[in-house]
Structures are given as structure tokens and as C-alpha cells.
Amino acid sequence: MTNKELADVFALVADLLEIRGEVIYKTLAYRKASESLTGLGRDVNDIWKQGGIKALLEIPGVGKAIAEKIDELLATGQLQFLEKLKQDVPAELAELLQIPDLGPKKVGMFYKELGVLSIAQLKEAAEAGKLRDLPGMGEKSEIKILAGIESLGRRSGRLPLGSVLPFAEELLAVIHKLPGVKAAEMAGSLRRMRATVGDIDLIVGAEQPEAVIAAFVALPNVARVLGQGTVKSSVEFHNGMRAQLWVHRPERYGTALQYATGSKDHNVRLREMALDKGLSLSDQAFLKEDGSELLCATEEEVYAVLGLPYISPELREDRGEVQAALKGALPKLVTTEDIQGDLHMHTTWSDGQMSILQMAEAARQRGYKVIAITDHSPSLGLVNGLTPERLQEQRKEIEKARKKMGDSLLILHGIEVDMRADTTLDLPDEALAELDIVIASLHISMRQSRAQVTDRLLAAMHNPHVDIIGHPSNRNLPDREGADLDWDAVLKAAAETGTALEINANPRRLDLDDVQARRAVEMGIKLAINTDAHHSDHMDFLSYGVATARRGWVTAKDVINAWDPKDLLAWLKS
Ligand code: DGT
Ligand code: CA
Ligand code: ZN
What we know:
Layout: H1 3-20, H2 24-39, H3 44-56, H4 64-76, H5 80-88, H6 93-96, H7 104-114, H8 119-127, H9 139-153, E1 159-160, H10 161-176, E2 181-187, H11 188-191, E3 196-197, E4 200-206, H12 209-217, E5 222-228, E6 232-237, E7 242-248, H13 253-261, H14 264-276, E8 279-281, E9 286-288, E10 293-294, H15 299-305, H16 321-326, E11 341-342, H17 356-365, E12 370-376, H18 388-405, E13 410-418, H19 429-433, E14 437-441, H20 450-462, E15 468-470, H21 487-497, E16 500-504, H22 514-522, E17 527-530, H23 542-551, H24 565-573
Parallel strand pairs: 4-7, 11-12, 12-13, 13-14, 14-15, 15-16, 16-17
Antiparallel strand pairs: 1-3, 2-4, 5-6, 6-7, 8-9, 9-10
Helix pairs in contact: 1-2, 1-5, 1-7, 3-4, 8-9, 13-15, 17-18, 20-21, 22-23
This protein binds 2'-deoxyguanosine-5'-triphosphate (DGT), calcium ion (CA) and zinc ion.
Zinc ion is lined by residues 344, 346, 416, 532.
């Protein structure tokens, strides 16, 4: 069994226990073990073979009960505890938990009351109106379940960039150290920094490809070899992620990297240009009509052969970048170094994990010149949002932090105010008027009709105190789609009212997305690239937001937190 398969067993145990109605804490140990096994860099089989149960206990999140169960699973391929549990609770029910907003209690109830065992049966029961009369249910919750089932059908199997990139970076560091490796880089959608990625593509430059491939497939966290050839191999890791590795001789590295970075459409465009010059471009080389090869060790050379300047990977989507490059009109893309501060963060005043001062100090350490403290407003459940009274109290603490930081950091007092379902904001104008900066965000009732939900954004933008719309669509990657916004209307209002739109850099959001960000800057709308940090570590998310902006052809002058703080202050006042 692989780590991932073991992890899946424990996740199933936890799901079934919850459906049976066990109290949460009894399931926590299984969930923790499942997560820990998924993230483990070593093969559990090796640990177990070397040191048995005792060695298993060294794995974080694995206590005696779990270690014994891993031992049983690895020895017999089965778990008696799970087999018994399945007699109480059919294992198929766990599948129902994938439906968004459907919890174990309801799943258990649908099974007991109606014998529902599968998503198909649940859909049938909901369509026949059989769920609405059960305890705690109604017509609305029935409709919600149907919508949830429908959204499952759209599930992509893609992973958010932020879940893959850190793993791929570690992997790359290991590959760099394999014998004979001269160069190694990520390619594919990961290098283009798409918001979600299908798999990990890696390119290596080495004189002896077969030796590198043999070493790669033998890495300890490889669970399965899906394919192994002389220049290419494909594997699945213990965490379930898949990677393809191509190895090329160093003198061909440029064409190989360019090819594997894609996108497919961008490459098609380049091949057409090559053909016009009598060249045929492959991952190996440019082939001339006389049959000789033109080799490129770097990507720059590939583009130069075609008469093009280097095109950043984030732009390679065939969205006009080749035409722009030909005209010398590529944008000077924003970089993380351009960013002067972060204008969206939370503290212990609402649902953040650190104090104002701790966040300020972390920001100063990163070399920021400005931050905005933007805790939540009151109506949003569970986040301890700020009433006008508590905002006044918070102001005093902001003043204290300002004294401590002196001239080294500008601290703006702000709020992330909720857009209520009825188009009003969650704080009175008088409270907003006293703040330095106001972000308005959509969190609740995001499944309203297009007209209704769009109206809420328009109303917020027309409020003179609102400076920024936070994570405009409220999407959650990879599978929760954003609100059904009328983007034409949203962008038009942003341009007219001079409201900035946020690119929320949290890798689960990346919202605005690249496409809307590009439309926005073309219309002269200003953007803010913010991390929405709830802990100082989250400030690291910045690079994901910047990458999204770069994919949207955004330059530093489009981004209010890339400006000198003086200019930002002037803009906030205007
Ligand atoms: P993904 O993995 O779905 O997130 O997307 P990509 O872009 O990483 O695509 P993938 O993994 O199927 O292929 C990796 C790269 O290989 C792709 O970006 C460009 C190149 N490639 C794959 N198939 C073709 C093809 O049929 N023609 C050309 N020109 N390039 C291809
Ligand atoms: Ca890929
Ligand atoms: Zn926030």
C-alpha cells in the first residue's frame, strides 16, 4: 500500500465514524494521521520494514492505535476495525460527503430514513421532493443539495497552484542533486503559474538521460512508476501527485524547456512562425530544410531564432503575447520587488492569529513601507467582527503600534466590510468615514442571481468610502466557482467610481483571476495585490498574487500597493 492509500483508509474511517454519529474528537486522530501520511516525504513501507510499529510511532500524528492499524494494513492489506465499521455504515456513504455543504449527520439521516446509499439515489430523492420533510430540512436545503451534486459533476481533478508548487520546489531541489544533472526546471502549467495545475512537468539537462531517469524513479517518495523510457518518465508520489520528467542533453535544453512549458496554443503559434522561416520546431531542435539541426541551449535562443524577445512563461497562453512581442510591445510585468506593502490583513481583533504589532513587525521585516489592518465587520458569523465601538478601541491600539514603528512603516487603519445580501454594507457610513482605507468583500449569499449579486458590488463601489473590492468573485480553488457576476457591469463601475479591485493572493483564491485582471487594467482600473494574511506567514502568498497579475499583463503602475506610499495616500484621499 502507498502512503496515499493508507491515508485514504484513515480518512474513510473518520468519515464513517462521523456518519455513524461519533463525537468529533474520536475522528480527529484518524484525520490527523491521514493528513500526516499524505504529507510524509518517505515511504511508510520502508519505515515499517526497518523498525516496525516502534518506527511508525515516530511519524507525526501517529499514536499507538494508529501505528497498530498501519502495521495491520501493511501486513494483511486489510483493517478489521474498518471491516466491522462498514457493517454498521456502508462505505459508499463516504462518497456523499464530497457534496459541498452536506455533513455526516445528514448523510446518516438520509441513509436511515430513505435508504440513500449513493449520490445518484440522493439526487433522485431530492428531485422527487423526498428530502424536504425530514428533520432540519426544507425546500431550500433540498435545492442546495441538488446544486451541490451538480457542482460535483464539474469537478476538475486539478489542484490549486499553492498545493503543488511548494512540493514541486522541494522535488526540484532533490533533482538538482542527482548525479549528472546540469540544469533542472519546472515546466508546464506550473511554470506558467496557472491558478490550478493538472500535473508537475520537469525538465532536466544532463549528458546521460537514462541514469537521471533511473535515479528519479527510485526517489523515496515515488509510490508508483507510471512510465519509464530513455528520455522521459512519469511517476505518482505518495501524496497522490503525478509528475513527468524529461531529460535532454544540455545543448538541447532550451528547445526542451520551451516545448514543455507550453502552453500548447503558444507553441502552435511559434511552430507556425518557424515554418514561415523554413524551420520545423520540436522539443529537440529547429530542423532546417536541408535536414541539419539548429540547437538551442537556452529558451532565449529559441525566441531569438524566431526574431522574438524573451516572453515570460506567465504570458504564454496565446492571448496576443506573440503579436505584442513582434511589435516590441510586451508589458513590463509587475514583480514582487515592486510591492511596497500589503493592504489586506487580519489580526486577533477578528479572526487573525497575531496582534497588530506582530503583523506590523513582520511587514517591516519584509521591507514593506505600508500595511493596512483590515479586520472583519460584525455580521459575518464566527469571525468576531468589529462593531463601530470596537473599531474605536482598535484605533487606540493602532496609534500605539504607529508610535512603536515610527517612520519605518505606515500603518493604515481599515476594515474588510461585508456586503450584505440586501446591497447595504455591514457598517454605517459614519464608521467607514473615520477609516483610512475600506475594503468591501462578498462572503455570504454568494449564490444569488447574477443581477442581485452584481448589484451588491455596484452598490459597494458607489459608496464613497469604499476603496477596494476584496476577492471580487469569492471563488475557492479548485472547485468552488465564484459568484455569477456580470463582469462587464462590475468593471464599468470600478472604472467610473475609481474603485480598485483586489487580486487576493491567497492561493485558494487568486481572485480577480488573470483574465479579469487584464480586462481591468485595459480599462484603466487600479488593482491591489493583497495577501489577506491571518498570520504573518501568510504574507508569503504575495508571489501567487503577483504571478496572477503577471498572467493578466499587469504592470507596477496599475497596482496601488506598488506605488510610493505618498502616492497611495493621495489616491486614498481623492
Ligand atoms: P496541466 O498539466 O493540465 O495543468 O497543463 P499543462 O500546460 O502543463 O499541459 P500538459 O501537462 O498536458 O503538457 C505539458 C506541456 O507539454 C504543455 O504545456 C505543452 C507541451 N505539450 C503537451 N502536449 C503538446 C502538444 O500536443 N503539442 C505541443 N506543441 N505541446 C504540447
Ligand atoms: Ca502539466
Ligand atoms: Zn480578509
